[in-house]
Every structure is written in structure tokens, then in C-alpha cells.
Amino acid sequence: MAASEPVIAVRDLGVRFRRNKRGRRTVKDLFAGSARRSRPGEFWALRDVSFDVRPGESIGVVGRNGQGKSTLLKLVAGVLLPDEGSVDVRGGVAPLIEITGGFVGDLSVRENVRLTAGLHGMSRAEVNRRFDGIIDFAEIGDFVDTPYKHLSNGMKVRLAFSVVSQLDEPILLVDEVLAVGDKAFRAKCYARIDELLAEGRTLFFVSHNEKDLRRFCERGLYLDKGTLAMDAPIGEVLDRYNADYATG
Length: 248
What we know:
- The chain starts with 7 loop residues before the first strand and ends with a helix.
- α3 (109-119) packs across α4 (124-138).
- It has 8 helices and 9 strands.
- The strands form 2 sheets. It has a 6-stranded mixed β-sheet, with helices on both faces.
- The protein folds into 2 domains: 8-92 and 170-244, Rossmann fold (3-Layer(aba) Sandwich), CATH 3.40.50; 104-164.
- By secondary structure, the chain is α/β, with parallel strands linked by helices.
- The protein has helices at residues 27-31, 69-77, 109-119, 124-138, 153-165, 183-198, 210-216, 234-244, and strands at residues 8-18, 42-53, 58-62, 84-89, 93-96, 171-175, 202-206, 219-224, 227-233.
- The protein is globular, with a radius of gyration of 19 Å.
- 36% of the residues are buried.
């Protein structure tokens, strides 16, 4: 495993956002070679971040709110593009980043399952074969023909996890979604993640739940002020993170 090629290779990654509509970069700015300087109203969400992820690794991403964790997952998922550096992902990604991501409010649950699974590359025959299992896992059998927008947040979480966890993609991205479901459903999610890890899937997991991080992850990435402050075994990373913020 250690000698295998990385499934995620991040090199000198940087991404910046605008706090407001002022300070936008112009074409003149780009040709002036000012790519590494922030303009007024801009800030670097991530800067100079580099790491590799090997097949089958379980990575926990930790840090306070606003330190770039969710941004990093969106870059790995291909939702965002970097301003600097590169993110090379070798293999398909099953993203569980936003519970409403990819679902259409006016479509029924049935239609959304078929659409979302299809967009992730699942054939129609495969969707049909797995459909009942997806609905049963989500525990929403009475709402199959209900418009998605009428589901509760808990139902939306269950449906999103159920669909994504049925994908055959080798890389699973999870961002805090397990904190939303009820206790019984979280237990089902934990068991499913255990199954996926046993199959050799790669897990990229953002959470503030230390217990979950220690359970699922072997390695940790600690983001602080948009930079990679530490890359080490998850226990060491959490100890460092807790020590840094012990006084609040």
C-alpha cells in the first residue's frame, strides 16, 4: 500500500475568495503577474497546502471553523478550482459534502435517486437493482413519490448518505453530515462506513467530532489559518489541535 501511487495528490494548493464585490481582479492584474498577491477585499482560504493520499487511507481533516476544511473537500471533489497549485484525483469521488447538493426540490424522491445516481455514473439497470436498498436504508419508503423539497432535514440527510454510500467510487468525501442525523441512523452510517473501509475505499472525512475522527481515521490533516499545520497520525493531530485551543 505504501508503495502505491496516490489517489489524491495536492501540490502548493491555494484558493482565495472575495469578502465583497470590491477588489475584483481584472485581466490587467493577471497579465501583471500579481497572482500571489491578494487584492483589497480578498483573502486566502487555503495557501501552500501539499500532501498525498494513498489508496485505502482514511484521512481526518481537523481545524476550527473558517480554516479551509470544507473548501479543501470541494477542491478534491472538483466543485472548486484552485487559484494556485494543483489537485490531482485519480479515481472517482463519492461526495457527501452538502446534504442538498445534487437534489432538485420539485422532483420526487424516486426521480432524485435516479437522477443523482445517474449523474455519478450508475447505469439505469444498476439504479433499478439498488433502488429498494437505497430507500430502505434511508427509511423513507412512505415518501418515495413525495417532492424532495417537502422532506425534513433528517430525511434529506438519510437520503443523501444512502445514495452516495451505494456508489462504487473508490474515494468517499464526508463533511460533517453525520452530525445531523439521529442516533439510530448515525449507527447505520457508522456501520456502512466500516464496510466501505473494509472494502479498501479511501475516506476523506471532515468533522469536529473527535470520537468519530479517532474511530474512522488513521491519519490527520490539521488546517490552521488556511495552511497545513500538521500531517501525522490522527491521535497526534488531535492532541496538537486540542493543545493549541485548550484556552479557547
